[in-house]
């Protein structure tokens, strides 16, 4: 059976309808993969990584060389799972109490162009008091990252791609669930083998499914799951995947793409949080084919959407929903000159994968088979991590 027919069969079983919205806590919900890899073929492949990043591959360090901040945390303050390379701490005590007050501002609807439906929070994470900056530095220091490489074949030509940013991913599609109810130590899940993946409806063990064996899925750690739950309440959308991208400088980028993969359903909602350096977020409408046997009239040309640029600042969040992914492309372009050294940016995107192929896709393009990287606070760069023996 072909991959296409397999995915269609999954949709027949799982349903291809849009996610059912939850009740929002405020009236701002008029309601990747944002900053994730698009495999749907939008005519432009992702940019290759700049050559200077090759220095990271040759140097390995152990955890003793990564200087952690002073902490009084105990074992209950970490998320753990066998598929994590190391345990991941919960949000710092200074940040956790602020979560109930987010979003800091109501979302602004942007839907004044054809097929466009955005909800823009400026900001979502409070910038006052340094909350957005603290969250950026915490996630950069505490999450495992990867520099994924892969080969594509287009038009009979094979091209090797090295992803031009650092990536990581957590989550599981709608058809299944982890055997433990949470990745945190106080999960209340009654114990059990945390490596098992169960069918969401029957409870049958599906850990050996081909879509779960190439890469071991892992639950969203509490520090990111807290933000996911907040985003769900603010937007009325449901999410089961979290993709995190770290742009080390203005040289890291993502080219124009759309997150319109079949495993996301026909009208996917994707929430993207920006932390760290301000970066331009560009959107443009996909090419509109001319009518059969003719060309666009002047009126039709005037109706075609104009490009859009949003200067995403630290703490901002943008929700792309409705027909946006099916009709628009988005990108984070490179920055050159004095703007290239910008201190780095993290983008966190939440989305909902409906079927098993989505799980395999996200781990393939955001984890892969290469080394784990962790932020080195001494040298202030991502460096390969290995477990202490």
From TrEMBL:
Domain Fe2OG dioxygenase residues, every copy: 238-354
Listed Low complexity bias regions: 9-19
Pfam families to which the protein is assigned, alphabetical: 2OG-FeII_Oxy_2 (PF13532)
Region: Disordered, residue numbers: 1-81, 175-199
Amino acid composition bias (Basic and acidic residues), ranges on this chain: 24-34
PANTHER family for this protein: ALPHA-KETOGLUTARATE-DEPENDENT DIOXYGENASE ALKB HOMOLOG 2 (PTHR31573), DNA OXIDATIVE DEMETHYLASE ALKBH2 (PTHR31573:SF1)
Record protein name field: DNA repair family protein
Species of the source: Apiospora phragmitis
């Amino acid at each position: 059976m072909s991959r296409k027919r397999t995915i269609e069969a999954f949709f027949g079983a799982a349903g291809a309808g849009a996610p059912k919205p939850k009740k929002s806590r405020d009236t701002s919900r008029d309601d990747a993969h944002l900053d994730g890899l698009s495999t749907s073929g939008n005519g432009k492949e992702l940019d290759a990584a700049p050559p200077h990043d090759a220095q990271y591959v040759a140097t390995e360090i152990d955890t003793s060389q990564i200087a952690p901040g002073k902490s009084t945390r105990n074992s209950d303050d970490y998320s753990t799972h066998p598929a994590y390379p190391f345990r991941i701490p919960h949000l710092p005590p200074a940040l956790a109490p602020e979560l109930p007050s987010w979003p800091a501002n109501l979302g602004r609807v942007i839907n004044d162009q054809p097929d466009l439906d955005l909800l823009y929070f400026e900001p979502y994470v409070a910038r006052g008091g340094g909350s957005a900056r603290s969250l950026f530095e915490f996630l950069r220091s505490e999450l495992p990252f990867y520099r994924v490489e892969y080969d594509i074949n287009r038009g009979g030509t094979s091209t090797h791609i090295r992803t031009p940013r650092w990536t990581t991913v957590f989550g599981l599609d709608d058809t299944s669930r982890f055997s433990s109810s949470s990745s945190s130590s106080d999960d209340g899940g009654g114990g059990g083998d945390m490596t098992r993946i169960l069918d969401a409806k029957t409870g049958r063990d599906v850990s050996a499914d081909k879509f779960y064996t190439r890469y071991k899925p892992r639950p969203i750690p509490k520090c990111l799951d807290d933000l996911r739950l907040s985003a769900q309440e603010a937007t009325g959308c449901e999410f089961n995947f979290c993709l995190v991208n770290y742009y080390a400088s203005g040289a890291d980028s993502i080219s124009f793409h759309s997150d319109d993969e079949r495993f996301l359903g026909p009208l996917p909602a994707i929430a993207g949080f920006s932390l760290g350096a301000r970066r331009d977020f560009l959107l443009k409408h996909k090419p509109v084919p001319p009518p059969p046997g003719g060309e666009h009239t002047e009126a039709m040309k005037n109706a075609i959407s104009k490009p859009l640029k949003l200067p995403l600042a630290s703490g901002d969040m943008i929700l792309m929903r409705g027909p946006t992914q099916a009709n628009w492309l988005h990108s984070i372009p490179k920055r050159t000159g004095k703007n290239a050294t910008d201190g780095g940016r993290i983008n966190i995107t939440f989305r909902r994968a409906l079927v098993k192929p989505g799980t395999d896709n996200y781990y393939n393009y955001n984890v892969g088979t290469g080394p784990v990287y962790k932020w080195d606070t001494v040298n202030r760069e991502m460096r390969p991590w290995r477990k202490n023996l």
